[in-house]
Structure formats: C-alpha cells, structure tokens
Amino acid sequence: MNTEIKIEKDKKTSKPRGRPVAFDQDKALENALHVFWSRGYEGASMSELVEALGINKPSIYAAFGNKEALFQKVLEKYISGPAGFISKALNEPTAKLVAEKFLTGAVEFFSDESHPSGCMVVQGALSCGQGADFIQSELISRRRQLEEHIKNRFDLAIVKGDLPKSANTANLAKYLTTLHQGLSVQATSGASKAELLAVIELALHNWSTVS
Amino acid sequence: MNTEIKIEKDKKTSKPRGRPVAFDQDKALENALHVFWSRGYEGASMSELVEALGINKPSIYAAFGNKEALFQKVLEKYISGPAGFISKALNEPTAKLVAEKFLTGAVEFFSDESHPSGCMVVQGALSCGQGADFIQSELISRRRQLEEHIKNRFDLAIVKGDLPKSANTANLAKYLTTLHQGLSVQATSGASKAELLAVIELALHNWSTVS
DNA sequence: CTATTTATGTACCGAATGGTAAATAAATAA
DNA sequence: TTATTTATTTACCATTCGGTACATAAATAG
C-alpha cells in the first residue's frame, strides 16, 4: 500500500532495512552475460547460471525475477557495454568512416578472445523452442533497431553531403548489418581475425562504387 | 551372429521377414526436416517431432536411432535436396556467374515461403547447450565444407582464366559464405526478398573491382 | 533486549526432456 | 497350423528443466 511512500523516504538517508545483499549484482550480471553469450538463451540452463554466478537459485530469482528477466537485463548490459563500439562507430564524421569503423570494430570485437565470440544479439536465440519466442522477437527487434540507427546516420550523411542524394540508405544499412551478422556466425565457427579482416576488406573495397 | 549372411541373402529376392513398416520413411524425414529447420536441433522437441511425423516415438527410435541420428539424416536430406541449388551454382561457367548464382539462389531459397526461412546449416545449432556440442561441430564443419567447395571452384576459375591469378580464392569464398550466413539471419528475422536482393546487388556490384 | 524486515540455504515442486520395456499386432517360413 | 520375426502401441523410466516453500541468518528499529 504505502510502499511507494517508503521508497521515497529512504533515498539516501536511512540504511536498508533487512539483511543486506551478499553479492555484487553487477558482477553477477557480468557472469550471467558470459553464460548467455556463449550458450544462447535456451542453451544456458539455470543450474549453469547458478554455478557461474556463485549465488543460490532463490537469490537469483529474488534479485532478477526469472530467467527471461535476467536475460533482458544482461542484454541491456551487453548493448550498453561490450557492444558499445557500435555507438562510437556511428559517431565517425563521414558515412564511409562509419561503415569502416562499424565493420572493423565488429571484427575486433567478435574475435576478441577475452570474451565469448560473435554477437549475443545474433546468437542469443536465432532458432529456439516454443518457450523462447518472446526472447527471439526481442533479439530480432534489437537487430532491426541497429539497422535503423545506421540508416538514420546515413540519412544524416546525405544532408551533410558526404553521401550522394541518390544513395539508398536503407539498403546500405541492411548491407552492413547482413555482413555484421555473417561475421558473427563466422567468428563463432572459428574464423580467425585475419580471415574476417580480409572479408571486410573485400566488402569495403567497393564502398566508393556503391555509394 | 549370422545376421550379416542373412542381409546378404535377401538383396531383392525374398520379402522382408516380419511386420512391415507402416509409414513412408522418406516422408517422415521430410516432416522432421521441417521441424528441425524451423526450430533448430535443440529447439525441436521429440514430442513435436512425434506429432509432426505422425508416428509413435518408439517407431522413430527403431527407424532412425535417436534424436541426433535423426537430425543427421535430415541434414543430409536437406543438403542434397532443398540446398541443392548450391551445387548448381558451382557449375556455372565463370567465377562471376558462380558468385551471382550462389547469392541470388540463396536469396530465392531463404525467402521461399513454401518452407522454413533461412539456412538449416546456419540456424540448426549456432549456440546451444552442452548436449548439442556434437551437432554444433557438425554444422560448423558443413559450413566449412561449403566454403572449401567455393574456393576450389575459384581455383579452377584461375586455371580456366576467368579469374586473375592474383585473386585470393580463400578470401573470396569466405566473403561469399559470410554474406550467405548473414542473409540467412536476415531472412529468419523477417527481411523480404526484395530487401535481400538489394543487399546482394550491393555485394555483387563490385565483383569486378574485387576479383 | 524484542520485533521486524530482508536475504540466504536447503530441499523440494510439477512439467517436460530424451529414451525404453513390454505386450501386442502383422507379416513370412515351415 | 505353429513358430519366428519385426513393427506398433501403451505405458513408463530417470534426468533435467525453470521455479518456489520454508526455515534460518543477518541486518535495523524501537
């Protein structure tokens, strides 16, 4: 009833009431990220997550809700964290530099051995059982969002004059995300960084031809 | 003990001994293909398969072994059947035509609504739980095989003279399969045929630039 | 101190998973 | 006919799945 009032009250003043949480939530999310990233949503079992987080199951549920909610939180952490190179790429001054940075950044990222290979948004639930439909849609939507962001950036490039007015920005964006997704598959299939770099060199070679 | 001798005996002569199989094995595999293709290896449950095949579970196990063996048989059927357009593409007379046919064939195939979208070899087990490691490796190996086939075809093109000796055939092959895999992801994410065609038009536009 | 609140650990839940034992049905062989 | 062989059906198995009830531990409030 009056929980809202209580929450208002202890902004920073009073210490929380009951037994304190005994683990670092952010660290826990990072560990969960590693599991979901390498195994996908369905491939990651709760028991595996329990082991990786070092927390008992009821504490996970108390802190994050359920498996689906945990995945969503991990997903946001992934996008704003490890996958943050994408935003940086979009801030490059010209369309050509955006494309270059986006693809080279992806290659660097996908083949970085300090974390699971490939893109979590691609591998998370490409195909899945009935129970994961919602997560699948969510990931599809995230991929679309990225495509939209790139298209918007290219629309801006037309305004700024570093992309011809005749350029089809939607097609260019889809071209880049298609490569991005293909690179992710290649990376998780064992392709080396050098191989992936060669691929995007071919793909970028014709940027002037194409736009 | 002497089963081998028996098998030798009834090549075509005597009718099989016991109760006859009551279902069309090939039709069953085709139904199983549909399930695995749309749900992936782990996403497809045995109960779903039982329903789709219209056969009771023990009969499936008697006929095909287990879930893994069934998937393998389905996979071979997929590669030699629906995915047969790839072999045809490789038989085109020039490297450029091979590339064109390979990509346009993939787009046609991935967006054909008479069967599940995308490529089963890509979506089958991109990420998975511990139990599907073997299938995952199998699919990775199949993707590599395709890449190898394309490379070999391009090596031949160098000999035949329709590809310059300076061309890096391995890189070209990886470029094409990366696009192929990206197109598969896009198709299962709802991209239209027209959109995919626009993507490969961009990708092919620079073939002369690149090879 | 006691009362209250919140988090933890143990032990468990029903449902779904892949897989099978055992009885029965349908064919051929003799 | 009877014996043998193979396939089908029903009913079940152990394990794992995601998720939780419940008792207890650790903090603050009074």
Considering the chains and any ligands shown, give keywords for the structure.
2 domains, 12 helices, 70% helix, homodimer, DNA-binding, 211 residues, mainly alpha, Tetracycline Repressor, domain 2, Arc Repressor Mutant, subunit A, disordered N terminus
Structural write-up:
Two copies of one chain form a homodimer. Chain A has 211 residues and is mostly helical. Chain A has two domains: 24-80, Homeodomain-like (Arc Repressor Mutant, subunit A), CATH 1.10.10.60; 82-210, Tetracycline Repressor, domain 2, CATH 1.10.357. Chain A contains twelve helices and no strands. Chain A has helices at 3-9, 25-43, 46-53, 57-64, 67-80, 85-90, 95-110, 120-123, 133-160, 169-188, 193-205, 207-210. In chain A, helix 2 runs antiparallel to helix 3 (46-53) and helix 10 (169-188) runs antiparallel to helix 11. The longest helix of chain A has 28 residues, at 133-160. The radius of gyration of chain A is 21 Å and the shape is elongated. In chain A, 40% of the residues are buried. The interface between A and B is large, with 47 and 47 residues.
